[in-house]
């Protein structure tokens, strides 16, 4: 029976881990649901890999507990935790064939030969490596090596699949293909997976939920759309792609709309902050539309005028820098916009939906 058929929730309760004076993981608590594809996302040194290794048993805890379902596992050695881990560098044995690499964990566990043969065949099929069992690692492409690493994890039929930046050594096109394969395989097996990456696009594309980490702590845990559209902190807003992060003063309220003054320019945002409070707010470049001469904004949208700055033509997308009166720059990303349509205009009118602005305390 495939162990992944028994869904496993992960409970991380006030976990901390230090290296000398560095607090790599600082009092982290979170719940990973049964069968969920959960991603730990953040910059280098934020603690995401240390937390993953703590789940696997390769990093001891200073404090806290980790449970799979009702079973506490942080006191168990790695081989008794029922986890399979895919490492960043694959960790493939060069002196073993593909089949030998996949069978290694089963042989170490004393599984009988007939069962090893059956499970290796199934793992190779799941990882799309049919017919490659007799090949040597040096005969494989980067994507195939990655599949071997995944098959070697799956063959032991773990309850939890752990992946530490598994695509970082692949080229851009192959990364996109492999991330889709990993996600499809996880959904097919219904196995709980914890995935570590620093790539925001990768996390958004494949995750059920994302935990954004910073300096050993959790900044936000939410579904991908919420992480991007409703960041809870300025750090999350800036880390999750490009944004305009501006600082201003609340000038007043109009119903459910807040008026925020940035220099002489006012922006409208959904919110209920008190007057005269200092705030900063995030407005994504793709949420701003440049209006043609005489063009009216969509209903409910607000506008501002600005001086044209740098224009970057990137094919399908054009990036435009707008200079507002106080010297701040607002960046716009527009699809199917030709620079020649803008170059003749010194100033432009830009429109935005106030509901797309996220306001943070100043």
Descriptive key words:
single chain, 362 residues, 6-stranded mixed beta sheet
Structure, explained:
By secondary structure, the protein is α+β, with helices and mostly antiparallel strands. 24% of the residues lie in helices and 36% in strands. It is built from 9 helices and 20 strands. The chain has helices spanning 48-56, 98-108, 113-126, 142-154, 172-189, 200-206, 224-229, 234-239, 340-343; strands at 10-19, 22-32, 37-41, 63-68, 71-72, 83-86, 160-164, 192-197, 209-214, 217-222, 244-254, 257-262, 265-270, 278-283, 288-291, 302-313, 317-323, 329-335, 347-352, 358-361. The strands form 4 sheets. The protein has a 6-stranded mixed sheet, sandwiched between helices. Strands 13-12-11-14-20 form a 5-stranded antiparallel sheet. A 5-stranded antiparallel sheet has the order 15-19-16-17-18, with no helix packed on it. A hairpin with a 3-residue loop joins β16 (302-313) and β17 (317-323). α2 (98-108) crosses α3 (113-126). The radius of gyration is 25 Å and the shape is elongated.
């Amino acid at each position: 029976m495939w162990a992944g058929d028994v869904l496993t929730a992960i409970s991380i309760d006030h976990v901390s881990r230090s290296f000398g004076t560095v607090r790599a993981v600082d009092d982290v608590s979170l719940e990973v649901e049964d069968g969920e594809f959960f991603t730990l996302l953040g910059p280098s040194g934020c603690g995401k890999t240390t937390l993953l290794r703590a789940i696997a048993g390769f990093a001891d805890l200073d404090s806290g507990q980790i449970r799979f379902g009702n079973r506490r596992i942080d006191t168990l050695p790695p081989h008794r935790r029922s986890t399979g881990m895919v490492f960043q560098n694959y960790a493939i044995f060069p002196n073993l064939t593909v089949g030998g690499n996949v069978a290694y964990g089963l042989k170490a566990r004393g599984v009988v030969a007939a069962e090893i043969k059956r499970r290796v065949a199934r793992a190779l099929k799941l990882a799309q490596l049919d017919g490659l069992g007799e090949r040597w690692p040096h005969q494989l492409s980067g994507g195939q090596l990655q599949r071997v690493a995944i098959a070697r994890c799956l063959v032991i039929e773990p309850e939890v699949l752990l992946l530490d930046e598994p695509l970082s050594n692949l080229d851009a096109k192959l990364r996109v293909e492999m991330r889709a394969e990993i996600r499809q395989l996880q959904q097919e097996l219904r196995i709980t997976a914890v995935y570590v990456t620093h790539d925001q696009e990768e996390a958004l594309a494949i995750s059920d939920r994302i935990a954004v980490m910073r300096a050993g702590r959790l900044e936000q845990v939410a579904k991908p759309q919420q992480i991007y559209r409703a960041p809870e902190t300025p750090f999350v807003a800036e880390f999750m792609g490009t944004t305009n992060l501006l600082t201003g003063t609340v000038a007043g309220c109009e119903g459910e709309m807040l008026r925020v003054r940035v220099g002489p320019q006012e922006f409208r945002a959904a919110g209920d902050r008190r007057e005269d409070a200092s705030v900063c707010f995030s407005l994504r470049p793709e949420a701003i539309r440049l209006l043609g001469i005489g063009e009216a904004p969509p209903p409910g949208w607000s506008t501002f005028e600005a001086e044209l700055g740098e224009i970057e033509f990137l094919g399908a997308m054009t990036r435009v820098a707008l200079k507002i009166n106080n010297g701040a720059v607002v960046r716009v990303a527009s699809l199917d916009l030709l620079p020649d349509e803008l170059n003749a205009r010194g100033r432009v009118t830009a429109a935005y939906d106030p509901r797309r602005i996220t306001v943070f305390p100043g």
